[in-house]
Amino acid sequence: MLKPRSTATRELVNLDGLWRFATATAVGERPWAGPLDTPLEAAVPASYNDLFTDSAIRDHVGWVWYQRLVRVPRGWSEDRVIVRVDAATHQGQVYVDDSLVAEHVGGYTPFEADITQYVSAGQEFRLTIGVNNELTNTTIPPGRITVTQDGCRKQTYLHDFYNYAGLARSVWLYSVPSVCIEDISIVTGLDGTSGTVEYEVETSAPATVRVRVLDASGAEVAASEGTSGSVRLEDVTPWRPGAAYLYELVAEIVDGDGETVGDTYAQPFGVRTVEVRGTQFLINGEPFYFTGFGKHEDTAVRGKGHDDAYLVHDFQLMEWTGANSFRTSHYPYAEEVMDFADRHGIVVIDETAAVGLNLAVEAGLTGAPQRPTFSPDTFNDETRAAHAQAIRELITRDKNHPSVVMWCIANEPSSNEEGAREYFEPLVELTRKLDPTRPVTYAAVMFATSDNDRIAELFDVLCINRYYGWYIATGDLATAETYMEGDLRGWAEKFGKPLIMSEYGADTMPGLHSVWDQPWTEEYQAAYLAASHRAFDRIEAVVGEHVWNFADFQTSHGIHRVDGNKKGVFTRDRRPKTAAHSLRQRWRELGGRKPSGEGS
Ligand code: BDP
């Protein structure tokens, strides 16, 4: 799916701003059928939860409604008009005046509708978007709705981050010519000093397609014709971690004589390769060592609302720390983030929203009897169908990003439980079919060990989440280091695949200090990370470390959290804790390479 861009044949109107807003309980039925009767306005993009003081809105379970008037530019009379929602978390419905034009399930991927037949150039229409935040056993991520004694519906879920909802990303109106380019797929390779570019262009109707490749200065360096083909770039400048270089593939629909351009779209891309060889992760044939974080889209007031200022600042802080990569834990991030990573040479492990397919963790935290994770009553074929759709939409959206080097299809599933293999095998196959060029991974939960895990061999890289020194061996870093090493050694020896430490971290209250190894202090977080690093450096197969988490983030209520998860190396307002400085020292020194001489 193409990101809307303004080109010589396409125009783009951004619909962000203040929209009328109401929860379903505050308005009548068919709220789209007229002006939304509400005193409230909500900012778009932003999660709605923290905007208002009314807890009934924050805790609302079900539909909320956003509405605004939109004028179609008067010059669009010959064009098709598309409305695009970058994300409606978790389910969206779009109405143009009284007509339902789009419905979508999945809170972190875009959807759009051709609304040409409902609107007229120069005229206004009423755009109403319904957003539903409900999570069930058949949604990705999953959750459960219970009804309290006084009849209130309550949402619970199996991940700790707060279930922010609403229109957290942009909404767009854009025009395309009646015969237009619908999709572009690009796969690159390196052959000595040349780059190879295979492309495929999908059009809305049979059309003559011309393709030109421009370098970063805008000079044409290759050209081709036809809806699919390949071109060679001599003296190519590859896209490298820390040294991004982007080309553009300009696809054009041309008429018979090649003179008139019916539609044109410029797709940025980078020339790079990704390969797993033995226990190495290679980018452009060179071993790459991941340093960085598991992140969240999370800031005060906006919730998961995309914000360009935080985008720039977060990347600045990552660079300051020496991070060369991050994981989009635990859902696809805004496309602006992916584009920024492309332009700034930051490597991304791109994750679906499949977090919490694990009822053992729930049982562990609540003491409730454990239900089987994979069963007709819990996570079943319908869940897997939703999961497959989440994978499809992630790859469709992000396939052309050079920054994306691997797909992570789930975080901490109950991979040691019966049924895990049957659940995951078709999903891994699907991922490989959709994109044979990128490795596939999942992040393994601490209950899944090299002995009992049932799915590791399906994957190319093993991402491991561990909390030795925090949830286990709390306050005892010597034991934690030994456990960590033994655990990782087990995976390395059994599977012979690259290992990435995809989560390790300790909750830390900024300003709390101690001379002893005291959990929650800033010194403890730094010492915890150092102990973990000693273990990683002794194991050759470890090809990366992503600290949990980049910044403190909001969570659901729970006795395990004080105003959110405090495992951030930065506070929620992005101030460094002590550990940020020690990470900076290590990572800047590593410079994306595994420490030499210590592997065993
Ligand atoms: C892991 C989860 C992550 C949590 C983290 C924690 O993958 O989302 O935030 O634990 O407990 O299990 O801090």
What's the short story on this structure?
About 20% of the residues lie in helices and about 30% in strands.
List the total number of helices: 9
Q: State the strand order across the main sheet.
A: 25-26-27-28-29-30-31-32
Shape: globular
Bound molecules: beta-D-glucopyranuronic acid
Largest sheet: 8 strands, parallel, barrel
What percent of residues adopt helix (DSSP H or I)? 10-25%
Distance between the termini: 45 Å
Named CATH architecture of the largest domain: Alpha-Beta Barrel
- Structure class: alpha+beta
CATH topology of the largest domain: TIM Barrel
> Radius of gyration in whole Å, from Cα?
24 Å
CATH class type of the largest domain: Alpha Beta
Count of all domains: 3
Mean pLDDT: 96
CATH homologous superfamily placement of the largest domain: Glycosidases
Q: How many strands in all?
A: 32
List low-pLDDT spans: none
Q: What proportion strand? A: 25-35%
Descriptive overview:
This protein has nine helices and 32 strands. The protein has three domains: 12-176, Sandwich (Jelly Rolls), CATH 2.60.120.260; 181-274, Immunoglobulin-like (Sandwich); 289-590, TIM Barrel. The model has no long low-confidence stretch (mean pLDDT 96). The longest helix is centred in the last third of the chain and has 19 residues, at 477-495. 20% of the residues lie in helices and 31% in strands. Strand 30 (462-465), helix 7 and strand 31 form a beta-alpha-beta unit. It starts with 11 loop residues before the first strand and ends in a 10-residue tail after the last helix. It is α+β, with helices and mostly antiparallel strands and 600 residues long. The strands form eight sheets. Strands 25-26-27-28-29-30-31-32 form an eight-stranded parallel barrel, surrounded by five helices. Strands 3-2-5-10-7-8 form a six-stranded antiparallel sheet, with no helix packed on it. Beta-D-glucopyranuronic acid (BDP) is lined by residues 159-160, 330, 411-412, 465, 503, 548, 565, 567.
